Structure formats: structure tokens, C-alpha cells
């Protein structure tokens, strides 16, 4: 296969992606009325982990979710622990996510959790993630 058509297609694709990025809205700063928190204790049972907390958000243009990830406090690698659809009406709501992590990666004791309140905002033909609030917290994972 000739190299020039492949390079041309690659360059065209890169320009198209840059066009989408330029048209994307800038990340929104969290409004003072928007927040997400993480409870100080998470649960481990039968190979699954449950994390919880609260959130508050204002109405968005697209669906909003609370996602969470957990890992050991001293490690960069975190494991996703599900997501919950948020109700954005300005009121405080509880969230709870349950998921599994690879066997042996976490044990009862100290852990680090990141919770993110994120909107999937329509922008042309794509949905772009817009972060509304983030919380980092060291917690304790308990069995049961």
C-alpha cells in the first residue's frame, strides 16, 4: 500500500479530531451549589466493593453520573467501582456504587477513593464529559 494515501488519511483524521476538540465547550468549574462527598467507610463482601456518599447538582444539558474508583493510598492505580445516575435538582442525594476489583488487589483497611460528578453534555454529534465536582478521600474498607 502506498505511504502517501495512508499519511493523508491520518492527517485528515487528526484535523477532524482537532476540529471536534476546538468546538468542545471548556470544562465547567463546579458551581458553589454542586458537590460530591465520599463516606469514611466502604464495604467489601463476596469479592465486591460498595462505596457511598452524597452529591448535589444543578440541572445540566445532558445526563449526569456519580462515578467512583478505589485503590490503595500509596498506589496510582485505581479500580472503577460503578456509576450511579444523578438527579440534578439542587437537593442533596445519596449515591452508592458497587463493583468488583481483581482478586487480591484490595484488602480490608486503608484505601483511597475518588468520586466524580460528571455530565455527558451533547456537543454536535458527540457527548463530551464535563466534570461538575470531584472528591478525593482516604477511607477504611471493612469486611461485611
Automatic annotation (TrEMBL):
Residues 32-143 form the DUF6299 domain. It comes from the Bacteria. Residues 1-30 form the signal peptide. Keywords: Signal. This is DUF6299 family protein. It comes from Streptomyces edwardsiae. The lineage of its organism: Bacteria, Bacillati, Actinomycetota, Actinomycetes, Kitasatosporales.
